[in-house]
User: Fold these one by one.
Assistant:
Number 1:
Amino acid sequence: MNRARTRILAAVLVFGLGCTATGLATVGVPAGVVSASGTDDVTYVEHDVTADTTWSAEDGPYRVAADVTVEEGATLRIEPGTTVQLAEAITIRVEGNLSADGTRAEPIAFTTAPEAPDRVRWASIRYEGRSNSHLSLSHATVEMAENGLTVSSAAGRVSVADVTVRNVSRNGILVEDTSRTPRLSVERSTFTDIGRRGVAVTPGMGTVSDAAVVSNWSATGRRATHRATFTVGADTTVDALRVAYRGHGGVREVEKDSFSTFGLDLNGNGTVERSLKPLLVGLGNGTGNAYEIRLNRSVTIPADATVVAVYDDAVNPRTYGTYPVEVSLLRNGVEQTAETTLPLDLSSAGDRHRRADRGNAETSRASRFSITDSTFDSIGEQAVFVAADAARDFRVANNSVANVGGSAVSLRGRRVESVTVGGNRIASVGRAADGVRVAAQRAADAKLRGNRITGADAGIALFARHQNVDGIRVANNSVTRSETGVRVRHVAAYYVQHVSLTLADNELSRNDGRGISVVAPSTRLTGVAVRGNDVTRNGDGGVRLEARRLVRTTVANNTVSDNGGTGFEMVGRQVRRGRVAGNRFAENRGHGFSVRTSVVVHNLSVAANRVFDNAGVGLNVDNELTNAGRIDLTRNVVTANAYGVRIAGSLGARVHHNTITHNTYGVGAPVELTGYRPGTGIVVEGGDAGAIFRTGDVDEKLAALLDDPQIERELRGRVGDSYTVVLRPRAAGDVWESDDAALTVRSLSEDIPTGITLPKDADRRSRVVVRNNDVYGHPRGMTVNVSTLVDVNTTTRLLVNTTRTVVAERNYWGAPDGPTHSSIHPKGTGDRVVTRRGWVDFLPVADSALRSPRYRPVANVSVSPNPARVGERVRVSAVESSDRDGRVASYRFSVARENGTSPNVTVSSSNVTVSSSPNLTLSFETPGNYTVSVNVTDDAGVENADSATATATVVVRPREMAAASNATRGTSDAPSGAGGANGTATPNATGDPDGGLLPSATVFSTFGGLLGLALYGVALVLGAYGTVLTLRSAGVPVSGATINGFAAAGVAVWVGFGLLGTDGLLAVGVAGGVLWVALVVLLWAVTRQLYD
């Protein structure tokens, strides 16, 4: 065949095949997809998806070069293993359906081109679906975006499962530009390296409303004064505010002095009631068209308060219209509200005084979504952020959160209801940020349970204002190494508003502040239950409940121990109908359990609690006003506290069937009550601020005898006499409706200056009763200090019952013959009863313990070896110490020289002062006699009555001493608590005489040491001389047997004298023999080498 023809035919075939392939390829490409030319295998996408379309791994990667919309009715299906590469600022908008469901083996990826710089970010996958639309992402990776997924439609459903969202500059998932949320589920997904929030559900503007920027005149492009206002719907704590004008108008020249007004409009009347200008420490313009106000401290903006900023030197936009102004409220650089855009409306009409009207704004709602089983790590702000006017019916559960800049889970709303936050594991949140934070006006039916939180400001925080809080359950959480375990704050608009919550089965330990802190000073705590919690080792205290009134409070089965302040305290004006039962309050550095009121405690039961080893009062009831409120303290065990029980101001108290023993707090500094020494079993005193009276039982008008203008005014409009009067000697009084906790006024008299009188014991309700208790082991069993209820004064003219009697019958005081009292029973041998003011009736007495006796432990100590040499290890043992009704829990050792000087002691043990081990190892640097003492404490915190001691003798050179027992045993104890004799110890010759392998050089100063050294030295000299002659091949004048004989004789002398008692020579003899044998073997080996 002709060669030219062949070439032409081949060219035609190649061209034809190329065209065919191109045509087939074109048929296989979906609508909107353009295949790249050349060697690049990328498929470019530049057109919308208008019909059902599939993107496959075989035809990928797909590079989206222009915004793409999946139109309504169309479905874009992305198959497993497909990679979608989006160009900078590109959005995939979904109005129809998107199904991107990969597999674990073949995940789908949304990313940038591999050649793109790291700074390049594509915009987002944006869902704008209709009611029948859906967006599904599973087993996919979303990375290098501004917002991974943006949801801006409330219709349809969005599902995200097994998705990794990473390296995103703003939010992983963002719900915005819609007033509602669709059905949204996020599960088993991972969010990491997110610039702002992991998942942000912020329909509308979250809780921000009434937002606008208004110019004082309408000239375009001209300098003007702008007024920016916006209202927050929930309490918001901030230390900075940032305002950004984007590309229209300008604030680049705004400075600190430009602000004429910056503060809070608290009443919604357009004026600033609280100025923040004094807190303004700086203003930065930074980059872009923005300014940032910085405050010198954090400020909480109350719910429904309006922030007002009026500033000069702003520049109007160059054309009329409405322009966006972004506002950010920051704390520690973390935004605290939803992304907020204020409209700057500039029109030719001016409209300079227009203010946004919240009534025209649609209420935003966040509901019907769940975020579960997901992981959040390295998040710039909050991991999960929910903000809406109404946030309800959603779950955030079983997620893992670490290394976030803000709170891990933050829920904000005017109303937060029916939400569950549970099973989350949270660690390392931002500075002043919380593990779970709820900020609302109305909060109800929220379940915060099963979370494990470390390293937060508050593990769980609830802030509410102006509305009731109901049905909040905080249960089964663990919060450790945070500032506060659980923190609740409420501010009421009206005093009748209330907070109801349950705190159950939580572990709150090793936090710097309190385990639980509930503070609502103007609110009623109603039906609060604190049950089954473990609140231990917190820095400031265990639990604090503070409110105006605490009603129907239950405190049951909690362990509150080893806290840095009071274990459990209730503080308020009134505490009513409460129950405190089955708790353990132990080893707290303040009171064990304390109730403090400024008005009254009434119908409070404190029963079956174990109260041990607290630095203050075991059970403390402290009323400022004296009243007849009923308090029942029964079946409690109160021991080893600085004080046992204190009743102040509650003349209706009943203290019965308790065990109150050994409250002497032996270890550490006690928290002292003013005027009372520690070591008192029971303190009974009156309130020092006044008294409460009911006037229904008197004929005369109380107003006629009062000289308190405020009381007189309040009594004028009253009908009948069934009302209560609070009289205070040094403060204004109060009048309210009848109160069954009030004292009863029996008579009025104008003949005495005080006006009102109650004869001694005329009202038998108004007496403290202390009956059927075991009270022993104290220097003072009870102190009575009940004075005149209100002293004679010109304000109240009141005197009631100048002598109050405490009924203290049938108690056991530690001895069969009863307590000691200076005048009633001076020969009693039990605990002392002291009456400062008032009187006590303690007869008859019980002659034996009414319940199982409680004993002090007995200390015992021994020292070995004794005598000991300087520098020798000495073992101190208290292992023989004992406790009849428990176990010895700790040992406190001390060492002192008998001449009173400070000992020079080296301690080999890890704990010389207090240890859970009964053994301690010491060494003494100077000779002398040392007194070693030990005190022991049992598992209830009770310390032994007397120390056990032993004398350790330390010598320079050893000497024989007669063996003697140095063990000290205390005598048996008795329930009176006065038993336990001083232990004594005598030296014991047992012990190791060898201080180590190398003896002291002083052993050679003894006769045996010198004789052995002489013989052994002769052997060494002769042996050395013979060795030299042997190496010179000369004759040796002394035989080897003679030389070895001298050495053996020296060794024998040392060993013999050592066995006879000269310390150290036995070791010298053995060492000398071994050395001699080694030298002989070495010499033999050397000579063999030379002559063989």
Number 2:
Amino acid sequence: MSSVSYHISNLLEKMTSTDKDFRFMATNDLMLELQKDSIKLDEDSERRVVTMLLKLLEDKNGEVQNLAVKWLSGALVSFHSSLLSSLLPQLTSPRMAVRKRSILALGHLVPCCSPALFSQLTEHLMKELAKGPPTSMTRTYIQCLATISRQGGHRVGEHLEKLIPMVVKFTGVEDDELREYCFQAFEAFIRRCPKEMSPHIATVTQLCLKYMTFDPNYNYDDNEEEDEDRMDIDDELEEESDDEYSDDDDMSWKVRRSSIKCLEALISTRLDLLLSFYSSICPALLARFKEREENVRADVFTAFSTLLRQTRVPKQTLHFLNKLCGDLCVQVPATVKALHRQLKEKSIKFRQGCFCLLTELAHTVPGALEEHIPALIPGIVFSLTDKSTLSTMRIDALSFFNVLLLSHPPQAFQPHMQVLLPPVIACIEDTFYKITSEALLVIQHLVKVMRPQGQAGGFDPKPFVKEVFSVTMKRLKATDIDQEVKERAISCMGHIVCHLGDHLRAEVQAVLAIFLERLKNEITRLTAVRTITLIAASPLKIDMSPILPEALSVLGSFLRKNQRALKLGTLACLTALVTHHAASIKPAALEPVLSELPTLVDESDMHVSQVQALNRTSTYQHKYYTRDYNPLLSSPLLSSPLLSSPLLSSPLLSSPLLSSPLSQLLKSLMEPFHRSQSSADGSIVHRQSYHSVAHCVAALSSASPKETPGTSGISSCALGSMAVGCLSDYLPFLLKEISAQPRRQYLLLHSLKEVISVCPASSLSPHVESVWALLFQNCECQEEGTRNLVAECLGKLTLVNPAALLPRLKQQLKTGSPLARSTVVTAIKFTIVDHPAPIDSLLKDCIAAHNKPSLIRGLLGRVLPHLYKETQIRKDLIREVEMGPFKHTVDDGLDVRKAAFECMYSLLDSCLEGLDILQFLDHVEEGLKDHYDIRMLTFLMLARLVSLCPAAVLQRLDRLVEPLKATVTTKVKAGSVKQEFEKQEELRRSAMRAVAALLAVPEVERSPSMAEFANQIKTSTDMASIYQSIKGGEGGGIGATESMDMS
């Protein structure tokens, strides 16, 4: 055996070791050996090497597995060219099966082949199509084009200028299958290359509209004259009609279906054309609701539902959304007219499509179906009562009914209660648990229809109460039923008692006793807690005194459970009970609860702490100790919602809490700071703690009748308010003091801001010039806080006379001082007010997209190039600073880039329809490789883009995956400080949130790079744990994204 073979055999043996490090090192060494040009292996050694590497693909260790994948991917690339050379001749095989398998193989080759190889394949197909081959071969080439476009993504875009005219030409050939493949190719082009397809959208749309009605074997004109009596035709005649027009040789339905799917792709990817779609595509789709083929009609419903979904996605501006909804409302009568007949058809698929479409319509424009509810009710009742109806059909009907109830006013259903209730009640008694569950949810909302809270109505619910109560009570008492039915029965009965309890006086106590039992059951306790909360807050003042002592004891025990949702629900329930039933609660009964409340004050869960504080506000008259909050007040994590909770407000502080001496309370608050200064362990109180405790001291001081604290801030505001009352006397004095008192300048500028903000423009106009001059004297102050205050004053002063002052303000942008220019830019920000103002028309050149996007949309073409330019790293702004023996890199352009990316994020919410998303993604992609702060922003932007424009993101997926993978797999050096570890960990988690959002996109698995990355996450314990925590804990779902604070 040669030395090379011996060495290889030795490595292969080590690759079978139980030690993962041995396997990893042996695999790595084998890779290095195989990369040498001089290596030559015999056939047996080659077979052993390949077998071992394939085995390592299933290795339990993720790093070993990734190494094997890396080697195989590198080794297989060299075969791509020979694979292509072998597959292309098979496209001309006389056997159709061979041609189809060759297309499938090419589809798998395209995602991983080089750009040159992809171009070679595309050029070959275009060359063959240009020859005008036989129809059968043309079908093969067009089908292959569609496949490689679906799999190859954006790479086909550079060839579209030549491809589109070819494919358009072949739609004119009298061959239905060829036309189907042409529209499939169009669909693939639209989905993968929406930007490159822009010049051809009109042509493709016209072709789709033409061929979606292509049905040469059927005449629809006679059918259109039929009325609703068509549903009563004898079954035999219906079957004869089906036989007459269901010709096995008729392939035209495939042309119609493919053209409709192509239209759906257009609707999905071209949000910018949505308004025009309502005038062109929407009426055409409505006209095809009469389609005779079941599969084609299902696709018509799907396309129309997509149009509705695109209308309600959270990316429209208010004006744009109102225009869309207005266009849609015009189409609602025609839509209902076309659908309400089909709701009684025997075809389950038709009816399910109708309910799905109507559900989308109700979601998109709530209330749009109010006038048409009488026409829809017969179809709902028919689906619920028809004996031949499948369970899934009943569930869909109940689900739609539920959406209808939630999105329309109660008055629309009250006249039809006699018809609606019986079929729903029958569904509650159904043997299938899913139907029972949905029916209980519908009854729950029907109860709200019978007696809406807060609305006075003339509807009398009394005739229906007994029947609704009886059927729900039967399910509530049952214990041998599905968990979902148990929870829905509890919730439904809770709403019955809450809304109709005064009609059930004798039965209410029996229901409450059952709720108490469910409260003690671990499986149903959370639902029971929420139901008791609902009943406690009922305006009917339901008597709950018989169950209160025992219920409070059980609720107190829940506060010890390590279940966050249960704690929050329990605190809400206790608050409702104390607020609405305080007279029925004895102090002794509340003791078990109060003893548990202090333990909930924890900086690790500020939300629970805040809810607990609200609860203590309701129960302070029973028991309260300030020391419970001392640990929280010293926390650096104390958030403003908790700090501003009613616990620290004057109603509570003026209560018996102040029976303790003020000095004692202050001493208790200050104790942590004195303790930290004298402690031997060196513990330090965080700076945020000073702010928190100061807030409490201020609240105590304001509540104390003997203390009247006067702060400088309050005094400056008071001075400004006084000056407003007599401008001629006080304003000159104020301006003089600002110049003469540099140490008090900041406070005096606050007074001036108060004057400018409050004083009417007519009164302030005579003094504008003197104030303007003074402000510009201080606009270059070295203190940033003072400059910001000057800027705010300038901005608000400009609103007095915008036509004259705004040009003067903008003229200052030409000054040479950077400080003055930054002050002017900040001042312009303060000229923006929420309500319409005379200055709006003058602000188009400098308005912020976040506040009044309507004024900047028309200027995006001029503004965006400058904005995108500021996102680029400028090497001339990067410098090195020597700090002792170390060199530290300082990037002076970081703040500007960060501001540019924040502006881009604002544009996503306010001006999305004016953005070129692919160009936008280019800069997001660069941001993913930038500084820590920039990457944190771009991860948020990417997750947002996934929800707004998934098709565009999919086009760039391969390029986006690499920076995400680099961030997630990066590990901090062992010698790094704790802050560096925390910083990198937060960066990894932010990147993983973006990855989780990407993985939620339906077609993402088609990307090989993303599939490989997902597999890498799955096999790595570290990455998998981060992904699972984000998927299940932080975001509440994969698609959840964080919001960026743009204040």
Number 3:
Amino acid sequence: MRSERASRVCIVVLEEVEEDESSSSSPPPQPKSSPDRRSHHASRRAAAQEDKPSLLRAIFNVDPDEVRSLIFKKEDVNIQDNEKRTPLHAAAYLGDAEIIELLILSGARVNAKDNKWLTPLHRAVASCSEDAVAVLLKHSADVNARDKNWQTPLHVAASNKAVRCAEALVPLLSNVNVSDRAGRTALHHAAFSGHVEMVKLLLSRGANINAFDKKDRRAIHWAAYMGHLEVVKLLVASGAEVDCKDKKAYTPLHAAASSGMSSTVHYLLNLGVHVNEVNAYGNTPLHLACYNGQDVVVSELIEAGANVNQVNERGFSALHFASSSRQGALCQELLLAHGAHINMRSKDGKTPLHMAATHGRFSCSQALIQNGAEIDCEDKSRNTALHIAARYGHELIITALIKHGASTAKRGIHGMFPLHLAALSGFSDCCRKLLSSGFDIDTPDDFGRTCLHAAAAGGNLECLNLLLNIGADFNRKDNFGRTPLHYASANCNYQCVFALVGSGASINELDQRGCSPLHYAAARPRCQMKAFYLLRNDADPAVRDKQGYSAVHYASAYGRTLCLELLMETSGTDILSDSENQAPVSPLHLAAYHGHCGALEVLLSSLLDVDVRSPEGRTPLSLACSRGHQECVSLLLHHGASPMTHDYTHKKTAIHAAAMNGHPECLRLLMSNNDQRINVDVQDINGQTPLMLAVLNGHTECVYSLLSQGASVENQDRWGRTALHRGSVTGQEECVEALLQRGASVCVRDIRGRSPLHLASACGRVGALGALLQATSASHADIHLTDNQGYTPLHWACYNGYDACVEVLLDQEACRKIKGNSFSPLHCAVMNDNEGVAEMLIDSLGTTIVNTTDSKGRTPLHAAAFSDHVECVSLLLSHGAQVNVVDTNTRRTPLMMAALNGQTNAVEVLVSSAKADLAPQDTNRNTALHLACSKGHETSALLILEKISDRNLINCTNAALQTPLHVAARKGLTVVVQELLGKGASVLAVDENGYTPALACAPNRDVADCLALILNSMMPTSPMVTIAAIPALSLTQTVINHHPTSNHISKGVAFDTPPPLRPDHASYCRPERPLSSVSADDELNDSDSETY
């Protein structure tokens, strides 16, 4: 079996066993009971080093008398070597029971661990020494000890066929199914190693035959993979599942097929396993066998009925795999003999011939061609096998394909020919083969690139010269306006540039971007040779691309120092001061931004103005500081760059740039500049100082650096916000602590009256809030600060639902006294459905807060009902909230608020659970039913109707004498109208305009008048005449006489909706939004509609 496995090179599909496993190490020599054992070990250890402790030498010499003598001389029995192995480890490794006994009785630690966590018991078991194991177990060796791979002595025994040792260990174990780090049990190791007796022992002692490791592989997977047929048979006989799958859906048949274990494959097939079972990638056992070149297994599988044309998830058949395999020739032959489709295409259009061409399998490609494979079949990228062979440089396959009629003029990906791909990849021999067929070398691809363009881009001089020698056009432009010289300049082979220039290629030709070959050469690494050669052949360094950049700009941006020096020597400083075709930024800006000190130094030696500006007014120093390039900053400062120069747009300086981007080293360099006076509190257009920006972005080191230089903590920006405001918003606790230590005021307010306490509470920054409160306590400051609308920090924390902040605030005695806006913190909490915060407030402040009212007489229950937050409504009701309380402005109850807004859940709780009174009327005498109907909230109206049994309430009128039936009919609420009629609603009731509910359905006055006329004319026959007889007659007479009175005209005949609860543009008394971005230039808006 092993010779069969060794006869083929197998690609491991499952996985190798960990190299560090103790079980995989070479087994030690087997101990023997004869006296010759000691001489055997002595000869093996004859070359023992003199530098080893004498006790170890005695142990390895297997000399118990010498060991006893050394122990008597007080030799340390627990001495460790550099791998933390003790003498007991050595004795256990040798399996010498007598020496082990001596060492233990002399105080040796029986469970000592080396640096791999192996104990002497692990070593003894690995040596298969049952005597040594017996002695160790007698002295309480830990049978559950684990090494670094979590392997116990039982794992080691299973791996090393130490059956007798395992028999001694198992009775002392509570569980034989303990797994190692990879999830493998002792049974896995025994199966992998092929130890039949060990497998029998473990199964007899209760080992779980279907236990799986971390990849869901069972013992039968490993036995099948290793080809241990007897173990596989034993496992199957003991109940192992032969069709089990691991996480990738590999079955034991997959495992055996992949490693070429034909006997195991044959046995599994005889058991009736599914021969075409697929794994997670759609591969059958036949796919794996073909990929690994296992022809014997392939034959077995085909005979068992394997589908030779089954494809995996990517559309590859077994023939695709065989054609790409190094050992796949015989597999390919078998597949073709059994009807495999030779031209089957994968999902990306590749045939087996494509696969052979990709991997360079010449014999496979020959077999495919001879068996009728389509030569010029295209994949989805339009590539034929010839394209692919040319791309990968498989000359023999190219020869065979051309010999059998493959077209060299067929277009592939991007319209390229095989010669394009060979030239691009630099395979000159392949180019010669393709050229010999008479191909036109100047034929372009879809982008207008010829084969010479491809050779120049590939950088292979031999290919380039080959094409030039047969007359390729070296000045031909592609669709981007680039010649082969552009591509050669962009690659790293300067010899291609020499060859093209030497052939007469145009030096200063520009592409569509306005770039010359010199531009591309200047941007590439190791470009000085190309640039020098181009300049020597009259390349113009002053040429600018369409953005205004010259080769100097490109060299500066990419840090090509030597090329830049060459350009400066050639063109002088005039190229830097050219006022025409100015680029967006200077070379100095580009070098500083990208941190190229060498290029920067070259440029600075030729420039007088170090503080050259970009269109936005940024200086090179500002850019270098923003990117944190310390060396560039130092260099610019050395040449006189000013840290205090403001840009044009935001008026920021280099100090701002370093602070806001968190570069403390750059800041220190700027501050230590003695050549200029530095203002550490310099302000930008919004009044922001570097300290503010550093705090805003959480750059603690920059904050400390600025504070150490005397930065003011009291400065305010145009919105009145300090650095402490910013730290409170972002929650940067270290920054806040640093500012407070420097005396920053907690009570300072911005233009909206908000202090840092407000902002920390509003943004949920509990750490910063705690620091601020501690500072207020130390300074005896007022923590009951209110903003311009009277809201305190507690209001803001409750509104946004930050439980932790609320808890911190309520811990302050002063916060338990509600002050500020009468729209209380409890109003704020229930308004935004912050039930936890609301409960915390009630528990801390008492139930009296439940019925507090705001300036309009609204309670928290009004707010909760208005927002339909049922949990908050229930919470308030459970703490004694008055369900029928009315506000002072509109005289509406919480139920009326909920009904008006169609808050069905709140309505249901209030009418069902809280038994809210349905009779109260607001200032317009609307009941809750009126209000629900007026806004078309059918479900809310039905919930209220369900609880009404009083006909008087059904027919109750509002200030416009409208009953709920009028309102519901006007809004087209069919179901509500039906319910109202069923509960006895009057159809004869008239409103202030004299209209019945029927006329109230009219969309406007004119329609109502017309309907009245029609009904009047129907009086003799229509039963509806009694509904509106009097008002209709008077109205008809008025209309016919065309003398309407002014009073009649002033009264609307259409339904007037009751006044709204609040203006449509205003929210329910919500606080303003907080500082969303302290650096944003936002407008002031203190209206009630502003929210956080």
